[in-house]
Amino acid sequence: MKDSISKLIVVLGPTASGKSSLGISLAQRFHGEVVSADSRQVYRGLDIGTAKVTAAEQALVPHHLLDIVDVKETYTVSQFQRQAIVAINTIAARGSQPFLVGGSPHYIQAVVDNLDIPAIPPQPALRAELEARSLVDLLAQLEELDQQSAAVIDRNNPRRVIRALEVCLISGKPFSEQRKIATPLYNSLLLGLHWPRPELYQRIDQRVDERMQQGMVQEVRDLLARGVSHERLEALGLEYRFISRWLRGEFPSEHGMVERLKYAIHDFTRRQLTWFRKDSRIVWIEGDHPEHAEKLVQAFVG
Known about the structure:
Layout: E1 7-12, H1 19-29, E2 32-36, H2 55-60, E3 63-64, H3 77-93, E4 97-101, H4 105-112, E5 115-116, H5 124-131, H6 135-145, H7 147-152, H8 158-171, E6 180-181, E7 187-194, H9 197-214, H10 216-225, H11 230-234, H12 238-247, H13 254-277, E8 283-286, H14 291-301
Parallel strand pairs: 1-4, 1-7, 2-3, 2-4, 7-8
Antiparallel strand pairs: 5-6
Helix pairs in contact: 3-4, 5-8, 6-8, 9-13, 12-13
């Protein structure tokens, strides 16, 4: 059965592990194209804060699902799943090798396992009721209704917590049980980049410093000037959340904000790894020996 379906190579791993570089290198070697599996790089204008691949990097191999949504809009896992499948099938149909590259676990799982994601539309009245409550209260209810989701969700992102609660309350089932697995569409090789924890944290800290030097604060100011609200910035990930709060005076200094941001990304990375470690299919590659991935891909594609 697996020989009759397209082969998909997935390059995943925690923040700052080198996924994008490895994905590009492998795609160059194996006549491939990259489909991004990053929940924030889909948005236009989120470049520095998401470490989006540059125009020069994108010129090396074709990239898909970057810069496809206005930052003021909300992009869902189900939307990504549909568009990623179209992109992967199109790449395979023209004889190229599709690579799914990113660190958003839900996005990767939705494609690799062909999850059957039920379409539960937003419930405005319920959302208004939930938005009126404190985040602490919302998290407590989510833990009661769905411990699995509460353990891995971004606990500082009210939008995601409210969505998980919304699905639980409307469906009567835990959010984590909503995604039933259908028949996989692809024969997938999952490659994960591994670094010893101290080295990974050092890479994260270095990248945060580089982003600040590249103008990450100005990127946030530009988003605000375009009419993106501070509330929306809160939902766009740690970098945008922390800079937004600093601009609102919630940190005494830029240096203090940056140090707190680094520790928050460390914590986020631990949760990323917890999610990935549950998947026994992932073959882990040492980050300082990415050439091992090439041998695995060569054996996989034949």
